[in-house]
Specification:
CATH class of the largest domain: Mainly Alpha
CATH architecture of the largest domain: Orthogonal Bundle
Structural class: mainly alpha
Radius of gyration: 19 Å
Strand content: 5-15%
Strand order of the largest sheet: 1-2
Distance between the termini: 20 Å
Order of helices and strands: HHHEEHH
Number of domains: 2
Number of helices: 5
Helix content: 55-70%
Length: 127
Amino acid sequence: MNPNWSEDLPIYRQLRDRVVAMILEGVLDDGDVLPSVRNVAAEYRLNPLTVLKGYQELVDEGLVEKKRGRGMFVTDGARRQLLKDERRRFIDKEWPKVRATIKRLGLDAATLLEEVKQSDKAGGTND
């Protein structure tokens, strides 16, 4: 996790978002244990209640489960659910903007696909 915190969002929310990113990127898999609240608080010099609040959001969303005395674990299917949610959010929120830009610039599917192929050949993907 990156220790640089933005002033745009509460730290607990940024912490939650970073764990979500780690799940989406495969850094954390189903069943993996999250670092303890105490360790995260000490490492990043945060109030343990801040860390707990970020973790609790993940629990409330069903992405993480508490196991009394053992810690917090990524739930089975968390990545799959996050991908589903992110794809839906992209289609609902981002795609209309992208589509409008494509239309405004007069681009067509063939041109865009060719650009993707060229970028892939040049190693320009983040996959």
